[in-house]
Amino acid sequence: MFKKILIANRGEIAMRVIRTCKEMGIKTVAVYSTADRDSLHVRFADEAVCIGPAPSSESYLKMANIIAAAEITNADAIHPGYGFLSENAKFSKICQEHEIKFIGASPEMIEKMGDKATAKATMKEAGVPCVPGSDGIIPDFDTCKKVAKETGYPVMLKASAGGGGKGMRAVWKEEDLQAAWESARKESKAAFGNDDMYMEKLIEEPRHIEIQIVGDSNGTACHLSERDCSVQRRHQKLTEETPSPFMTDELREKMGEAAVKAAEYIKYEGAGTVEFLVDKHRNFYFMEMNTRIQVEHPITEQVVDYDLIREQILVAAGVPISGKNYYPQLHSIECRINAEDPYKDFRPSPGRITNLHLPGGHGVRVDTHVYSGYIIPPNYDSMIAKLITTAQTREEAINKMKRALDEFVIEGIKTTVPFHRQLMDHPDYISGNYTTKFMEDFKMEDPED
């Protein structure tokens, strides 16, 4: 087992990893930028190393600085969390070269699954259902036009190196295709330094449902059922739940089986998710695989009583998994609390928290790194907390979430707490009748109007 793990991340996920490491008797090293010197992960780790100034390109993405921090502290493993370098094949390889265990996927696995076009081709080989569309990268616009015609409109253009909704364009008719092709490539080049595009059939009224999987070094994998992540804004998830209100026992078995087949086909090691789009007829299609821990992993932990970070560490240390699948025994919902103003088009709201009161009680979990007096820097993702409620039924979990949101007091900045409170009262959310298009029609009701 590892003696010391460096956490190459910040915020709540760094705190989350530190907690599990402490419970396992493993020493921890926090890394931080100058903007994060007062963050809780710095305070609670056994050691902390400053790795650069505020911009992430000069700190949390600076591979040489992170490796240097691991070497001077004698860390024998690095946990990358999510985001930043968690799915960076080069960083995973550098860790290997320095004989530091990367608690995540191998460089080969990240390369295979990180490029969405390659991942789709691999999943087709594995016999996992895929969305109809191009076979890999589209070389030029003439080919793009031909593929769109063969696939049938509407289609979705996607950046092969994409993420977070960048380089994606929905196209409903041929005359709009060229403008979409050019703007998607331009956006992808600016965001990822890569303008490779591929195309998929646009699935109407889709739900975004992912299956949590874990695989070990022996090539054995299991699944821990699904999470419904369909409530999204600009392809960014806002809230997640498990089990999905759209799921049937038969569909769960089929999707779980497909996800395990995908993981075992590529001999996946570690925790990951296989993400699917599910249409209104409950046909499901492979979308992508995330070779890391997910932001929304706590809801899975709550319904199957399973520490996913602990399992990541055990698998990285060579401990085999049991191979049995897990099914939800309870219902759990997560609301991402962001430092944004939901009344002003979710505009970022960094600044000092002047007063903070976190909700509590049975079935309430808060993962956060903030406290009263903490200054939220403008340099990073705006998520400052995750509020998770768990109960026997979905109705009870929603009611518990309403109560917890009413207790959640954050002053000095704007947050998405009011949005989530209104969401929990929305009739379509309450009935479970929502898709990835839900936010297109959602209107915040301003109490001052």
Automatic annotation (TrEMBL):
This is Biotin carboxylase. GO terms for biological process: fatty acid biosynthetic process; malonyl-CoA biosynthetic process. It catalyses: N(6)-biotinyl-L-lysyl-[protein] + hydrogencarbonate + ATP = N(6)-carboxybiotinyl-L-lysyl-[protein] + ADP + phosphate + H(+). It comes from Aquimarina brevivitae. It comes from the Bacteria. This protein is a component of the acetyl coenzyme A carboxylase complex; first, biotin carboxylase catalyzes the carboxylation of the carrier protein and then the transcarboxylase transfers the carboxyl group to form malonyl-CoA. Pathway: Lipid metabolism; malonyl-CoA biosynthesis; malonyl-CoA from acetyl-CoA: step 1/1. Acetyl-CoA carboxylase is a heterohexamer of biotin carboxyl carrier protein, biotin carboxylase and the two subunits of carboxyl transferase in a 2:2 complex. Keywords: ATP-binding, Biotin, Fatty acid biosynthesis, Fatty acid metabolism, Ligase, Lipid biosynthesis, Lipid metabolism, Magnesium, Metal-binding, Nucleotide-binding. SMART domains: Biotin_carb_C. One of its GO terms (molecular function) is biotin carboxylase activity. InterPro entries: ACC_Biotin_Carboxylase, Acetyl_CoA_COase_biotin_COase, ATP-grasp, BC-like_N, Biotin_carboxylation_dom, Biotin_COase_C, CPAse_ATP-bd, PreATP-grasp_dom_sf. Residues 120-317 form the ATP-grasp domain. The lineage of its organism: Bacteria, Pseudomonadati, Bacteroidota, Flavobacteriia, Flavobacteriales. Residues 1-444 form the Biotin carboxylation domain. Its EC number is 6.3.4.14. It is an enzyme of class 6 (ligase). Transmembrane segments: none annotated.
